[in-house]
Specification:
The termini are far apart. This protein is α/β, with parallel strands linked by helices. The longest helix has 16 residues. It has ten helices and nine strands. The chain has two domains: 168 residues, HUPs (Rossmann fold); 91 residues, Pantoate--beta-alanine Ligase, Chain: A,domain 2, CATH 3.30.1300.10. Its main location: cytoplasm.
Length: 280
């Protein structure tokens, strides 16, 4: 496994791999990340992983400074997983002095997470665009847990004719249903015990959908009813939106994503499930 921190070093190392999959991460890896690495290694033969806590996707009052980091642990995990290349740039390497360009993704980045975190998805799209240009992967792998991020990346790849196939891998969950996330490390023991309510709530909505309910407002009420059983939660949103455009739906009569965002203490948690009338 080669570990490099500059663009020039990465491009030199990249020449040895005709087909390369990319897994972009912010580090503090868990089994969900490693499932992406495994999928990329199987499908592409070789996989590159980027570890970069991207400052441009954090707002001024968000958790950039305290975001969990453990590079040596991450490298051990990636080595064991058969990773070929690891790119660990500094912010100055990605955003050198005088850097001013940004990728704007339009309405798809302004709803849900984008409404609460203005500019977040421009930061995501900009850094992912840079990583695609640096790595030149044939495929890039992302987790379904970050459903809006996946939709945003698919949109700019399509709109800008980026020659990368975006592969979305199902969410990895702990045995109690909590979606794996680096930010779960923020939770106290008590909060961790409450956090699986997100998936229980989404499952209640999904069960209602599979039983024939398509009214989006009623589906959201089913989700909110379960979330309300944990009074320490503050709900930011419950949504049933078109799976491609993220426009809110009145009826789930087409492929949709049902998503939630809550606050538990100082920690913000998101999760989602897919609703597809063709397979319900």
């Amino acid at each position: 496994m080669q570990v490099v921190s500059t663009i020039a070093e990465f491009r030199a190392a990249r020449r040895g791999f005709p087909d390369l999959g990319l897994v972009p991460t912010m580090g503090f890896l868990h089994a969900g990340h490693l499932s992406l690495v495994e999928r990329a290694r199987i499908e592409c033969g070789a996989v590159a992983v980027s570890i970069f806590v991207n400052p441009t996707q954090f707002g001024p009052n968000e958790d950039l400074a305290r975001y969990p980091r453990s590079l040596s642990r991450d490298l051990d995990l990636l080595r064991e997983a058969g990773t070929a290349l690891v790119f660990t740039p500094t912010p100055a390497e990605i955003y050198p002095s005088g850097f001013t360009s940004r990728v704007e993704v339009g309405p798809i980045g302004e709803v849900l997470e984008g409404a609460i975190r203005p500019g977040h998805f421009s930061g995501v799209a900009t850094v992912v665009s840079k990583l695609f240009n640096i790595v030149q992967p044939s495929r890039a792998y992302f987790g379904q847990k970050d459903a809006q991020q996946c939709a945003v990346i698919r949109r700019f790849v399509r709109d800008l004719d980026v020659p990368v196939e975006v592969v979305v891998v199902p969410t990895m969950r702990d045995p109690d249903g909590l979606a794996m996330s680096s930010r779960n490390s923020y939770l106290t023991d008590g909060q961790r015990a409450q956090a699986p309510v997100l998936y229980r709530a989404l499952s209640a909505g999904q069960d209602a959908f599979q039983a024939g309910e398509t009214d989006a407002a009623r589906l959201c009420l089913a989700v909110r009813g379960v979330l309300a059983t944990e009074p320490d939660l503050t709900v930011d949103y419950v949504s049933v939106a078109d799976a491609t455009t993220l426009e809110e739906l009145q009826r789930a009569d087409r492929p949709a994503v049902m998503s939630v965002a809550v606050r538990l203490g100082r920690t913000r948690l998101i999760d989602n499930v897919l609703l597809d009338p063709l397979i319900s």
